[in-house]
Amino acid sequence: MTQRASIGEGHQAQTTPLCTALELASAGVPVLPLRQGKVPFGNCPVCAKNACGGRPNMKNAGPCQCPGICHAWAAATTDPDVITSPAWASAWRQAVCVGYHPGGAGLAVVDLDNPAAVTWARETLPATRTVPTTRGQHWIYKGVMPSHNAVRPGVDIKSAMAYARWLGPGTGTMTALPGAVRALAVKEPPARPAPQTLAVPAGGAGGACPHRTPAYLDRGIAMGVQRITEARSAVHATVYRTFLAVLSTHGRCGCLTDAHVTRLFTAAQAKGESPRHCTDAWTNALTTLGL
Prior knowledge:
Blueprint: H1 2-5, H2 17-26, E1 31-35, E2 39-40, H3 80-83, H4 86-94, E3 97-100, E4 107-112, H5 115-124, E5 129-132, E6 137-142, E7 148-152, E8 155-158, E9 164-165, E10 175-176, H6 179-184, H7 214-229, H8 235-250, H9 258-270, H10 275-289
Parallel strand pairs: 6-10
Antiparallel strand pairs: 1-2, 1-3, 3-9, 4-6, 4-8, 5-6, 7-8
């Protein structure tokens, strides 16, 4: 990493993308040409839709035998013979800048896309090598991690299986990839609301059902809970239909109690429904039935 950390230091920047690419490759940074729009060149017909099997390796070409600039970041290489090959010559003539594979160089780039993101990084992340960009900065750390976009507003992480645009060596001392950056890529599953005991009007006054036995009522509630619990899709609709079915049978006779309604609401909330949606669905069912 000593060599990589000093990329471009003490050297006057070269003006051609090919010269820059060769300098980076000599320092162990896998490179590729980027065309107009600062994007990789498209796959050749043989490699279209990865019909060739792709290039899964993180540093250089994998099983694909295509000599061209295919498979975006996976085409990046440190081999000067490949970089200067006739198959790459046309791409270098059209290239507007150089791209590199941070993960292949043992690096991670925190791409800060606006001033607010830069301010956040200065207040939150350990200092490291910084490179100015058109709208913000690249913060470069030593270490490899999965790449992720939009880990927070204006912040992307480019490391493994991604490419970044070379914008110069930057300034500052490159430091180790901190846990704070790795944590940005960890997506926690959305929290489900905790089941709540709610007293919701059942449409009746409570008491014994005049035309059904209490066991029948309990069985009906249990079936409603089971229907909601086993729903694999359309949970909103399932909850509403279940409420409607229960109320159509027991909503007029006054046998439903708060305990019965709470069982249904608890099952719905365990599937991710909010208390408000449960109340709305119950109210809509009452309205539909004219209760």
